[in-house]
Specification:
A: D-Maltodextrin-Binding Protein, domain 2; eight-stranded mixed sheet; two-stranded parallel ribbon; 17 helices; globular; B: mainly alpha; MetI-like fold; disordered C terminus
Chain lengths: 408, 594
């Protein structure tokens, strides 16, 4: 086996120990476990051999990538528009330190919904991208991916395992970070779940709408705000057995006409706190952010009973990036607890596969509420919907949803 | 041959430099305009083949005719009405009467544009809203009602009110100049024949400054119909009060992540639709200027304007100015300071008072992006200010001082950018930047301070040339002719004679342009890249990202800096602040050559 040959060459005592352990496992593990029909698991011997092999292969690949990144001399990447600019330096410094890089790192706050349109235009025009690595939601990333704007990372499995200790240790499966059509192209580093945030002085929990359809009822006329983007609605189609797309647009339109305002989520939350609106369609992050600033703020949150969309945020390396190796290192490093420990304390957004207090509470709150949380990469149906949304027909449909949000 | 003895239509050697500079800047304008128009006929990016009318047919809808255009018209005319209501009396009070504190009042009016529009909109929601409005609550308590159904949201009239307050200063300054230069002998003659003061004002003064007023009103109309952020916050983004500016916004800034592509042609179509009423207004404005001979009693020297003693009425005058300043400057500044001291913005209450702190000011510089953002802002503001002053001077020289056949065309073309929404220009520039990075990779355009500077310079040229046209028109040609006779060349005449004479106007233009560049968000945000973030964009990003407190703290710092700088520069450069801002440098709209 090539892997074993490599192990022999390495000559490390640790590696030799691993060979012994692997041999013992071969001898003592029950055969039916190994050969159970339909099992997706790899042969345990292979698993461990791969584990023995991956660090070596991963290390070699990583070293090569680091060498290329050093040659490139620079990295230009985006970070979330909601992240504080005070994160730029610590993130850049930690990134360079992790890989021993001596390069110029530029991180810019960018509103992804705007930049991705620009990035797609750059790709269509055949122009070099402004940024080497970009962050965006799963659906934005899918659009960029569909336009040919993201670059697949070769040997990403080995590199991810080498860079991310959670993957290396087996605590996190690679599919939790990259999967479906984005597999190998884009790597999730944070997520949020949609929910209602309401002013406790203006409306009680029991008076809140239970489903998205209820937003169109006269009871809530002018009482809520929602953002102009479609993420609160589009995934709704995936939760119905037989979705009727036109009917769903009507539901959105009724809610749009019934709403008090269409505002970005953050200003919407502000105006709920001011008391102008009773509730807003927003996301869990704002609750943490507001309470961190003012624990007595008169707000609370609730999940919808029908569904609550989970939005994942991914880093992707751009096609024709000027500094692809540095971009690759950054995209993979952003999935690590090391990077998370820098940005999460100020942004307070959760990492679904993470182990921090915020991450655990994030999962616990969903479990406790028994809310139906659904993400784009959850199953074949959502993936199919995501792919469809990238088609001409899908885009037109979503434009209709966006107009319906504004009551048109 | 001197430009003054040249026959009409002949271009002399002396005209070459100003003409070349004029056409250089106009070439950029023409390319951008052509690009915006061209994009309305191609299916997607201009690099892809094909011709289509789809973009035009897509935007044509009954909603456009029944909602979008009427709302835009109401907001345009309503803003003009509100702006004129405050600006015209104030222009007279602060320039032609003995009102106390004129210098301070004038400078405070000058500071108004620096206050971010979204803060002003938030302030008005806090003040006038059926649910939370402080005024509504006071009035409801006083009248014994549960609520007062009055607000600025979801109504074109409410939007026009807020926009009118914001756009009062341009009308004020555009009218102040002509008001200062009216020959007092005419008013004295009216007085001799027994006209009362009010009648003199109505029958003599107002008609004399009519071109200035019209210029100001048209300028404000054109600005009001293309502003997005304030209508958006007050109802346009919700689709309740759709306007052309919100339609263009949604075509170039997609509605959501799943529609992450530009509606390439639609931006141009809406831009053209927005330009149409503005161009009609511009036509009438130029028609008025054609007949400026009627108003040529307005000269630049040889008299001191007569100041009316208001007697006991002056306190009513002071009250009127204070009312405006309270509504347009005091209220938003209070909201700004309040928001900067609150952890999370809440309505004023005893409980909220206990939460006040300076936490948002901690690490403010770093939170705004550090020295780099400050440096970018300084470079942008200074370069835009310099280029606008330079190119405006050159264009105005051609228009006012030469006999070049193309001068009228130049004067019209330079005004056109004001008719096109800034977002459409920014979009066209961004697309050109992308194409340039492919075809001309050596050209540093996309993502640089330069691309924002180009957008700002083009956008400010209409105003700059109005100021310069008027300033040059005031300077008699005899001075240049003397220098010419002595063998002095045109560049030297410009530098040694003309520029010192129009120094106040130039300083005013430079400072005003710098201030507008300092606070401009829309174009800077759209054209921002990794290396060209400026302060206004940082504040906007903070606000949009949920850090309203830090954004407000940044805005407080921005307003304070601008205020101090404005006082400082104007005081050092040209004497009394009021004299600079309100009189000698006030930007008149009269561009007719003498």
């Amino acid at each position: 086996m090539a892997g074993l040959r490599k192990i022999r060459v390495s000559g490390s005592p640790i590696v030799l120990c691993r060979i012994v352990v692997v041999s013992l496992l071969f001898m003592f593990l029950p055969l039916q476990f190994v050969l159970s029909p339909g099992a997706q698991r790899a042969f345990p011997g292979e698993v461990l051999a791969a584990a023995a092999e991956t660090p070596t292969k991963g290390k070699q690949l990583l070293d090569e990538l680091v060498r290329k990144a050093m040659q490139e001399g620079e990295l230009v990447a985006t970070m979330s528009s909601s992240w504080s600019k005070t994160l730029v330096r610590p993130l850049g410094d930690a990134f360079k330190k992790r890989f021993g890089l001596d390069i110029k790192v530029t991180l810019a706050n960018v509103e992804s919904s705007q930049h991705f349109a620009m990035a797609i235009a750059e790709t269509q025009a055949g122009a070099p991208p402004t940024y080497d690595a970009v962050q965006g939601t799963d659906s934005e990333t899918m659009q960029l991916h569909g336009a040919g704007g993201t670059q697949r990372i070769e040997n990403w499995e080995a590199l991810l395992a080498e860079i991310n200790p959670l993957v290396r240790s087996g605590k996190v499966r690679p599919e939790e970070i990259t999967q479906g059509p984005l597999r190998g192209h884009s790597f999730m580093f944070m997520a949020n779940v949609k929910q209602l945030i309401y002013n406790t002085k203006l409306i009680s929990e029991k008076d809140l709408p239970r489903t998205h359809t209820e937003l169109g009822t006269p009871k809530y006329k002018g009482k809520f705000s929602q953002p102009p983007w479609t993420t609160h609605w589009d995934i709704g189609l995936a939760v119905f057995e037989k979705p009727d797309r036109n009917e769903w647009v009507d539901v959105v339109r009724r809610a749009g006409k019934n709403g008090g305002a269409v505002l970005y989520e953050s200003p919407g939350v502000q105006r709920v706190i001011l008391g102008e609106f009773a509730f807003v369609l927003a996301q869990d992050r704002y609750m943490r952010q507001i309470f961190a600033k003012d624990p007595k703020a008169p707000i609370a949150s609730r999940f919808f009973d029908d569904y609550n969309g989970l939005t994942g945020f991914y880093h992707s390396v751009r096609t024709r990036a000027r500094h692809p190796a540095a971009g690759t290192l950054f995209a993979l490093w952003m999935t690590t607890p090391e990077a998370q420990a820098i940005w999460q304390p100020s942004d307070l957004q959760a990492v679904p596969y993470g182990e921090s207090k915020i991450d655990r509470e994030f999962r616990l709150s969903i479990e406790k509420s028994k809310a139906r949380v659904i993400g784009w990469l959850d199953n074949e149906k959502t993936l199919e919907l995501l792919r469809w949304s990238g088609t001409e027909e899908g885009r037109k449909y979503l434009e209709a949803v966006a107009r319906a949000i504004r009551g048109e | 041959m001197s430009p003054f003895t040249a026959r009409p239509g002949r271009i002399t050697t002396a005209d070459t430099l100003p003409l070349a500079c004029s056409w250089l800047i106009l070439a950029v304008v023409i390319v951008l305009l052509a690009f915006v128009l061209y994009m309305t006929f191609v299916p997607s990016l201009p690099t892809e083949p094909g011709f289509t009318l789809r973009h035009w047919s897509n935007v044509a809808s009954s909603r456009l005719l029944t909602k979008v255009i009427p709302n835009t018209a109401i907001i345009g005319f309503g803003t003009v009405f509100v702006g004129a209501f405050f600006a015209l009396p104030m222009a007279w009070l602060l320039n032609r009467t003995t009102l106390p504190l004129r210098a301070t009042f004038t400078t405070m009016i000058g500071i108004t544009p620096v206050i971010p529009g979204f803060i002003l909109a938030m302030g008005w929601i806090m003040l006038l809203d059926e649910r939370i409005g402080l005024l509504n609550n006071v009035a409801a308590t006083f009248l014994g009602l549960s609520s007062i159904p009055l607000g600025v949201k979801d109504s074109p009239w409410g939007i026009a009110w807020v926009l009118g307050l914001i756009l009062t200063p341009p009308i004020f300054f555009l009218v102040a100049g002509p008001l200062c230069r009216i020959d007092p002998s005419l008013e004295e003659a009216a007085s001799v024949v027994g006209m009362r003061q009010l009648t003199t004002l109505r029958r003599v003064t107002l008609p004399l400054v009519w071109p200035g007023i019209l210029g100001g009103l048209i300028y404000v109309f054109m600005t009001a119909v293309s502003i997005f952020e304030i209508p958006a916050l007050l109802g346009a983004a919700s689709g309740k009060v759709p306007v052309l500016a919100s339609e263009i916004f949604y075509s170039v800034r997609p509605g959501g992540p799943l529609t992450a592509t530009f509606a390439y042609g639609a931006a141009g179509v809406y831009g053209t639709l927005l330009a149409a009423p503005s161009l009609v207004a511009l036509y009438f404005y130029l028609r008025v200027l054609e007949r400026t001979e009627r108003y040529q009693v307005i000269t630049g020297k040889g008299y001191r304007p007569r100041e009316t003693d208001l007697g006991g009425w002056r306190w009513i005058g002071v009250g009127f100015v204070v009312l405006y300043l309270a509504l347009a400057v005091g209220l938003p500044l209070l909201v700004l300071v309040w928001a900067s001291l609150m952890p999370v913005l809440q309505m004023p209450s005893r409980e909220a008072l206990l939460k006040l702190s300076f936490t948002n000011y901690d690490n403010l510089l770093e939170g705004l992006g550090g020295i780099r953002v400050i440096w970018n802002t300084v470079v942008l503001v200074l370069s835009v200010s310099l280029f606008v002053s330079f190119f405006s001077f050159m264009v105005s020289w051609v228009v006012v001082r030469t006999r070049a056949q193309s001068r009228k065309l130049i004067d019209m073309l330079v005004m056109v950018p004001h008719a096109i929404p800034s977002l459409a220009f920014a979009f066209a520039l961004a697309m050109l930047g992308i194409l340039a990075s492919r075809w001309l990779p050596w050209l540093p355009l996309s993502g640089t301070i330069g691309i924002i500077a180009v957008a700002h310079v083009i956008n400010r040229m209409p105003y700059g040339t109005r100021v310069m046209n008027s300033a040059l028109a005031q300077v008699h040609r005899e001075l240049e002719e003397c220098a010419q006779v002595c063998g002095t060349k045109t560049p030297t005449i410009m530098r040694r004679i003309i520029l010192p004479l129009i120094k106040p106007s130039t300083i005013y233009l430079a400072v005003w342009t710098a201030m507008l560049s300092f606070q401009e968000v829309t174009m800077a945000l759209f054209l921002s890249g990794p290396h060209n973030h400026v302060l206004s964009v940082s504040i906007w990003v903070l606000w949009e990202g949920g850090s309203l407190g830090t954004a407000a703290a940044g805005a407080v710092a921005m307003v304070a800096t601008t205020g101090v700088l404005m006082f400082g520069i104007l005081s050092v450069a040209g004497g009394p602040t009021a004299g600079l801002v309100g009189r000698a440098v006030a930007a008149p709209a009269l561009s007719k050559e003498p």
